Amino acid sequence: MAQKQGTQRKVCYYYDGDAGNYYYGQPHRIRMTHHLLPNYGLYRKMEIHHAYKANAEEMTSHHSDDYIKFLHSIRPDNMSEYSKQMQRFNIGEDCPVFDGLFEFCQLSTGGSVASAVKLNKQQTDIAVNWAGGLHHARKSEASGFCYVNDVVLAILELLKYHQRVLYIDTDIHHGDSVEEAFYTTDRVMTVSFHKYGEYFPGTGDLRDIGAVRISSLP
């Protein structure tokens, strides 16, 4: 998107107060980050939007139907009924069941997909969703405290309008499942800066360049 010299970039920010209320990881970090906006006056320089709740159909543009159906059904009070599915979908210690699990996934995904839509329609230059970035979730399996891969879903939305997408991951953990999702296409280039070695998820060697073009920088 062309940017005239001296013009201020338009920024949109997606947030829903409920996203910081679910027992997921350390939810207070989402609220703390959001509180920086008024404290630093940043809200005056951006559009603030409520993240919508993505539906199951949107999630299954990448994830398998049975996995999303399971996430929609599982709750702390019915876990005993889903013991086999929990093992199959890697739900347990690293990816626990908590109240509102699916609703959190909906908000996290909705904010990222809505950000991609804004960019596609050239209604913003920068889009932010602090509740997103769950880059470990696989097509049919949770991983690393990630259940639905909002990053992959946002990239798929961007690909509707753009021939190629560059994805840069600066988390200390390798963006393994984003790399995996686009391993065989030249339309998405993934670049991950991460700690490598005996560290989760243990992937992302410099020699891993994918079937087409993937960069890993431990």
Overall description:
The protein is α/β, with parallel strands linked by helices and 218 residues long. The protein folds into two domains: 11-162, 3-Layer(aba) Sandwich (Arginase, Chain A), CATH 3.40.800.20; 163-218, no CATH class. The chain is 30% helix and 12% strand. The chain is built from seven helices and six strands; from the N terminus they run βαβααααβαβαββ. It has helices at residues 28-39, 56-59, 65-73, 83-88, 101-120, 150-158, 176-181, and strands at 11-14, 47-49, 126-129, 165-169, 188-193, 214-217. The protein has a three-stranded parallel beta sheet with strand order 2-1-3, with helices on one face. Helix 5 packs parallel to helix 6. The longest helix is centred in the middle third of the chain and has 20 residues, at 101-120. The protein is globular and about 55 Å long. The two termini are 30 Å apart. The mean pLDDT is 89. One of its GO terms (cellular component) is NuRD complex. Belongs to the histone deacetylase family. HD type 1 subfamily. Its EC number is 3.5.1.98. It comes from Rhinopithecus roxellana (Golden snub-nosed monkey). Keywords: Chromatin regulator, Hydrolase, Nucleus, Repressor, Transcription, Transcription regulation.
